[in-house]
Amino acid sequence: MNAGDLVTSAVSNTFRSKTRTILTILAIFVGAFTLTITNGLGTGINRFIADTVSSIGAEDVMTVTKTPDAATGGLPSNDPVEYDPDAIGSGRPGPGGFGGTVTAMTTADLDTLEGIDGVLRVEAAKSVSPDFIQHDGGTRWVIGVGNLIPGQTAQLAAGTTPDLDADQLQIAIPVSFVEPLGFDSADDAIGQTVTIAISDAVRTQHTVEATIVGVAEETFVGGGASALPNDALTDALFSLQNTGVPLDQQDRFASASVWFDPDATADQVDDLASALADAGFTGTTVADQLGAFTSIIDAIVLVLNAFAIIALLAASFGIVNTLLMSVQERTREIGLMKAMGMGSGRVFTLFSLEAVFIGFLGSAIGAGIAMLVGGVVSRALANGLFADLPGLTLIAFDPVSIAVIILVVMGIAFLAGTLPAARAAKADPVESLRYE
After folding, report:
1. What does the angle CA 191 – CA 192 – CA 197 come to, to the nearest 5 degrees?
2. Which pLDDT does position 53 carry in this prediction?
3. How far apart are the C-alpha atoms of 214 and 160, rounded to whole Å?
4. Do 90 and 203 touch, CB atoms closer than 8 A?
5. What is the dihedral angle through the alpha carbons of 278, 279, 281, 286, rounded to the nearest 10 degrees?
6. Which residues, in sequence order, are bridge partners of residue 283?
7. 169 shares its domain with 247
8. pLDDT in tens, 266-300
9. 338 and 426 co-located in one domain
10. Rounded Cα–Cα distance for residues 208 and 186 (Å)
11. 135 and 23, same domain (yes or no)
């Protein structure tokens, strides 16, 4: 009996006792279904977090601020705070930005940062505070302005992320500003011109016109009410804002972006953060800001996967029982096969293939139905409970992960079938033929 015959025989023998086999497959189905859903849950949430990470910064960039004195400490408090003449508005929406003040950085601080070991490049984050934004002489709306850095991609409802290197003044407006500015939809806003007003040091108001190239979705880390300008627009607003400011006071920045080796290990990044701290700075990566989220999600998924594995282990006892009963019922058949020259190895392989086939059926059906159910549930939640989290696909499936799940279940089925297969392989042909 060649390999093809063994597979054919294993498949046909699987359903000799249809009821018993179907019940065993159902038990495997439950475990595979649960494992697929929990794995998809982790994949979907972590993808959303990864997209959010890319929308608030690049992975190889630290946002650096000067470490405040105890008297001007960073976190909001009801306690009185001593006036600091070097304080400056943070202008940092999202994690780590409290809308308060930080100690201003100067060009000398930027030079210090460039001299720290591990720093590849430094770029000041220019904080601007526009008065309003309007379209075509319509209503004026107060809006914040964020900062884009190379490698950062905004989560967009329409259009593209502003081109940092373009000479044209470009901006991505928040999706919540589409209707107030008079646009019918996010797509309708693309290519339109808006007017941004900003006041200088002597309260003279200036206006700048910029082209809308993108409409940014709100994210769960905040910053949804902030527009995203390209470098040309930021420079124009920063220059107008500093009109009338003494030259020695113009180069004052809320923070700076520090680039490091993208292939740096976690220990090397920690060493860089320590070096920054020793120099009087505080460095924060997007991993620091969102690492807790991914850790919690991974822990939850791990626990849920543990329950799924327990269900599969329970199902494996069903495989053992099914094949042991099959071996007992086919004792004479086993004896006849061995008497006709089939070796113990082929007998073992035959029953092992039956176990693997049962595992394949249970896992494939479980994974398939889990993908259907997960897709329906995910779409329903995206349009209902999680409508405020655009871009979230709660349950997402990775083909590689699905294949791994099926292979893992088949492996468990093979191990479960080892005992019955070994018993069949050891059967004495003479005694087997006498079995009643």
Report:
1. 130
2. 61
3. 5
4. no
5. -70
6. 64
7. yes
8. 889 889 999 999 998 988 887 776 666 667 777 77
9. yes
10. 22
11. no
Give domain status of residue 107, yes or no: no
Q: Is 132 helix (H, G, I), strand (E, B) or coil?
A: strand
Last residue within a domain, chosen from 197, 226, 252: 252
Residue ranges in the chain whose pLDDT is less than 50: 70-78, 81, 90-100, 221-224
Distance separating alpha carbons of residues 265 and 149, to the nearest angstrom: 22
> Which residue from 133, 128, 95 is spatially nearest to 219, judged by alpha carbons?
95
28 in Cβ contact with 409 (< 8 Å): yes
| Nearest Cα residue to 272 out of 123, 108, 116, 61 | 116
| pLDDT in the model for residue 295 | 74
Phi, psi at residue 252, to the nearest 5°?
Answer: -125, 125
User: Which one-letter amino acid corresponds to residue 398?
Assistant: D
pLDDT at 183: 95
- Count the Cβ atoms, other than its own, within 10 Å of residue 60: 18
Looking at the structure, do residues 196 and 138 belong to the same domain, yes or no?
A: yes
Contact yes or no for 54/152 (Cβ under 8 A):
yes
Cβ count within 10 A of residue 255 = 28
pLDDT of residue 99: 44
* pLDDT value for 418: 85
Residue with tokens 């527009």: 227
Pair (305, 402) in one structural domain: yes
* 17 and 141 both lie in a single domain: no
The total number of structural domains in the chain stands at 2
Distance CA 135, CA 148 (A): 23
Helix, strand, coil percent values for the chain (each to nearest 5): 50, 15, 35
Token pair for 101: 């003040």
Tokens of 135: 């379209």
Q: Which two tokens stand for residue 82?
A: 């001593």
Distance CA 46, CA 386 (A): 15
Domain edge (last residue) among 196, 228, 252: 252
Check if the beta carbon of residue 140 is closer than 8 Å to that of residue 268. no
Measured distance CA(224)–CA(134) in Å, rounded? 18
**Is residue 64 domain-resident?**
no
Q: Is residue 78 part of a domain?
A: no
Collapse the DSSP code of 87 into the 3-class scheme (helix H, G, I; strand E, B; otherwise coil) and give the result: strand
Residues 246 and 141 in one domain: yes
Q: Is residue 108 part of a domain?
A: no
The pLDDT value given to residue 197: 94
The domain in which residue 375 lies consists of 3-53+293-434
Q: Are strands 144-145 and 226-229 parallel, antiparallel or unpaired?
A: parallel
Only one residue has tokens 């500093």, namely 242
Residues 236 and 300 in one domain: no
Distance from C-alpha of 344 to C-alpha of 334, rounded to nearest angstrom: 10
